[in-house]
Amino acid sequence: MMQMDSDASESVINKDEMVKSSIIDIQNKLQNPYEEDKVKDQIDNSVDDPKDPRFYFTAVVLKQEIERVNILIKCIKGNLKDLLDAINGIIGMSNELESIYNDLFNGFIPASWKNKSPQTLKKIASWMNHLKKRIDQYNEWIKCEPTVTWLSGIHVPYSYLIALCQQFCKQNGLELDKLTIDTKVTKFTDPSKIQSKPKNGRYIYGL
After folding, report:
1. pLDDT digits over 8-39, tens only?
2. Any residues with CB less than 8 A from the CB of 182 and at least 6 apart, and which?
3. 77 is in which domain, residue-wise?
4. Residue pair 97/83 in contact by the 8 Å Cβ criterion
5. What pLDDT shows up at residue 182?
6. Low-confidence residues in the chain, pLDDT < 70
């Protein structure tokens, strides 16, 4: 009986260590939340005229994307801190934290994180890599809109496409409801090889 209790205790400790390792890995990959007012000023200051139709509509999309991902970052950071405290016995393990604990142990995305993210079938490891890549694109975009946009890295991809249509209409005096989106497949295979934006529209990848 004592041997069985000892084995069970060792199993719990090993499980705790595995979840702690997962928590630390996620914390190391995830940046701190954005200072939204500061970031929005940076976006406006990255161009000569923030109201210039060449930049205005896509800048609005970026600001909305920052707001959405910030909600997710704060949620993850807060959950991980509380979960670590619960594992270490500093606070009680609530039902929500226990659910997150089990999800991390099994390699799943916690429900509270999934609800604040684009739909996905990914496991936690590949999902975190995807999230980090999304944030990397946002960070570059804050400084200057990418020459090639990773469309799958935008929470609401359609909003970006609509912004491009609004931009084109504003520049050419056209009505939005009479515009159609035309997609052309290029021969480029490496986004880093593209040095400049097209005259109209944008280069995108990740469809």
Report:
1. 455 566 899 999 999 999 999 999 999 999 99
2. 201
3. 2-145
4. yes
5. 84
6. 1-13, 48, 50, 53-54
What does the block give as tokens for 172?
């050419």
Instruction: Identify whether 120 is part of a domain.
Output: yes
Instruction: Quote the CA–CA distance of 172 and 156 in Å, as a whole number.
Output: 25
- For 194, the token pair is 């593209």
pLDDT in tens, 124-152: 999 999 999 999 999 999 999 899 999 99
| Torsional sign, CA 81, 86, 88, 89 | positive
Q: What is the pLDDT of residue 46?
A: 81
Distance between CA 43 and CA 193 in Å, rounded?
25
Let me know if residue 132 belongs to a domain: yes
129 belongs to a structural domain? yes
pTM of the predicted protein model: 0.88
Are 194 and 84 within 8 A, CB to CB?
no
Contact in structure between 163 and 62 (CB atoms under 8 Å): no
Residue type, 57: F
Reported residue count of the chain is 207
